[in-house]
Amino acid sequence: MTSDLTLTGVTKSFADFTAVDDLDLTIPAGEFFALLGPSGCGKTTTLRMIAGLEEPTVGTIHLGDLDITHAKPYKRPVNTVFQNYALFPHLDIYENVAFGLRRRRIKDVKKQVDDALELVELGHLARRKPAQLSGGQQQRIALARAIVNRPDVLLLDEPLGALDLKLRRQMQLELKRIQTEVGLTFVHVTHDQEEAMTMADRVAVMNLGKIEQLGTPQELYETPRSTFVANFLGQSNLVEGTITASEADVVALDVQGRGVTIPGDRCMAVGGAGEPILLGVRPEKLKLYADGDPAAAGENVLPGGVVTDVSYLGVSTQYLVRMPWGQTLTVFVQNLVAGAGFAVGAGVEVGWQPVNSFGLRGDAT
Ligand code: ATP
């Protein structure tokens, strides 16, 4: 039976530098959780405190009712898989996986090692040495070696960072399958937003030692609460406007003389009439219409755009559209009909459904 992992008021300072700043976080047992953020945001330090490799300066870490804040790394039911797999080169794969069990004098080693190797689908390589395995296979063995110890929590520190893109994508799905099968809590550190979104049930986006926003991948992508999150997860078009009416269920705003609306629950603390607001729309949520096309009616529409660049990307085409106020919007249009689309220089209107937009405080940074 695994337990919830709870960090309460956790701060880590190095001399006068605060790497992790008053973090509160609960990760339910069995969740695949990702800590996502740019280099230096404090995600590895957070992971190292959970592992027991760093001690918090302030705050506590609990697993269920057990206070593990100051417990030695090997005394807590937590295992870590690092980017450099650190397999023992002189031991074969079987013995690498068996190592922790033998050290703890666990009985029935064979069955547990066989099960772990089967889980990562590498049972047939049990008698090879690590050097005879590919990078992806070595990473799966490192995973088997950690999982065989049945920790309550498995920590993954950029575990796929050393793999090439194709293998990384494949391993992302593998990791997700394995986590679902074993039901352990996984805490995964990464700076790769696609990786976090592909695998995790919930993601905490970190910035400057704090959690900027925590939610499911869909929540973070569809309703980011800050420009940092909007820009860190995918691309956003952020357009300045002024609020004309702010109700609970809908916020009306003026963008360069045009009225548009955003559903109230997609606006973050944006203030009242007369205040600035940032309208956010993801590139694939925008549609392009020829100037004056009546099909645009009924949507939010901003007219007067001119296509300045067209890039064919296979699945979609990327259009850059220069708006009358000088801003360039990015629009992804799915290539449903071969040969269709707009050319550079075409006059276009940019439209979108209100539910496909979000609002941020106009003075947000
Ligand atoms: P990366 O993706 O580059 O590993 P990160 O988000 O994991 O970044 P951390 O490794 O947690 O970031 O580091 C957060 C900050 O704390 C960084 O500015 C780093 O320089 C600083 N830091 C980490 N460990 C120490 C240490 N032992 N002494 C001093 N400063 C440290």
From TrEMBL:
Enzyme class: translocase
Reaction catalyzed: ATP + H2O + polyamine-[polyamine-binding protein]Side 1 = ADP + phosphate + polyamineSide 2 + [polyamine-binding protein]Side 1
Record-annotated ABC transporter domain positions: 5-233
GO MF annotations, alphabetized: ATP binding
Signal peptide start-end: none
Pfam families registered for this protein in UniProt: ABC_tran (PF00005), TOBE_2 (PF08402)
CDD domains: ABC_PotA_N
Keyword line: ATP-binding, Cell membrane, Membrane, Nucleotide-binding, Translocase, Transport
EC number: 7.6.2.11
InterPro entries xref list: AAA+_ATPase, ABC_SmlMolc_Importer, ABC_transporter-like_ATP-bd, ABC_transporter-like_CS, Mo/tungstate-bd_C_term_dom, P-loop_NTPase, PotA-like, PotA_ATP-bd
Highest rank taxon of the organism: Bacteria
Entries under NCBIfam families matching the protein: potA
Subunit (UniProt): The complex is composed of two ATP-binding proteins (PotA), two transmembrane proteins (PotB and PotC) and a solute-binding protein (PotD).
Function: Part of the ABC transporter complex PotABCD involved in spermidine/putrescine import. Responsible for energy coupling to the transport system.
Protein family per UniProt: Belongs to the ABC transporter superfamily. Spermidine/putrescine importer (TC 3.A.1.11.1) family.
Name of this chain's protein: Spermidine/putrescine import ATP-binding protein PotA
Name of encoding gene: potA
